[in-house]
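An example makes the point: we let one protein speak, the chain in one-letter code, the fold tokenised, and here it is:
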Amino acid sequence: MIEKLQRTPLYDLHLELGAKMVGFGGWEMPLNYQGILAEHRAVRSRAGIFDVSHMSKFWFTGTGILEKLQQLVPSNLARLKPGQAQYTVLLNPQGGVIDDLIFYYLAEDSWLAIANASTKAQVQPWLEQNLAEMVYDSNENLLLAVQGCKAIPILQEFVSNDLSKLKRFEHQQLQILGETGWIARTGYTGEDGVEIMIAPEVGKQLWQNLLDRGVAACGLGCRDTLRLEAGMHLYGQELDQSISPLEADLAWLVHLAEKGDFIGRAALESQLKAGISCKLVALTMEGKNIARHDYEVVHNQEKIGKITSGTMSPSLGVAIALAYLPIELTDLGQEISVQVRDRLSVATVVKRPHYKSPKP
């Protein structure tokens, strides 16, 4: 039996714009409207708007909820003050990543987490198992991402608060088109911008108002090329339950000295003591050869790994990729080969991310 895909409240508007719709994480979502390249360049040069209402939203409430959450992640959430957020990972006992997500500290004994749509079937039971009645999820509101170097000044017209005072990884409630909404200066593109949670009818108005101001409607296609240029992980490709944050080049999320016990701590401590055997690296490809997901990585005629993500970078004009390599082959400048169809193509380890947006 074919599972029926869920639709966001903007589904009809996507169709009106001529979006190519695809299934993703149990949802019917826009892949692109005008084309991936045009949408990618719109975000890099000005601003784009994404419907990300498919993402999982979990609220946590109750006395002592911080202590409970601390047991699920390697990051020290006690660092945060209300109005701040932390990107982190949920770990299994072996130190593998169940999901990567952002925790938002709303108020005393009140938190929000936004996680991937494709992982909900494993994340929600894990949260409920460890937090009991302290967690609930809801898709009642729209979630929009407005991203790009001009996103903040364009959006400012429609909100009450001074957005220039909202720092990276801060969030707050505010008035959007005269209605209460929630905004966070977070995103998945490597550009400045925000993510907005708001009632569906108000969100539809905001969507149209931003389109009228020349903000480009953007789909999953350019969301992937933007995040790959910015060196951001995609669950199921760079992350899964067999990969630890240390191997995923996310050691900066692991705050062992600041925390007590948490699920996966012993496994991470063992890895640190023994040393990791592989690590995620960024690659640039020779010529126009594009390394795709699952292409074999080769060194000295031996298969040493696989490409996790790859594309032709619209911003840089070169083919880029991410891959896990044996630790002894992860130094910058190291050359390896990738099996691209019927030939080996040279790839070079470079600094991640591939692209950083110029500061305003």
Q: What stands out?
A: The chain has three domains: 11-53+141-229, 55-135+244-275, 277-350.
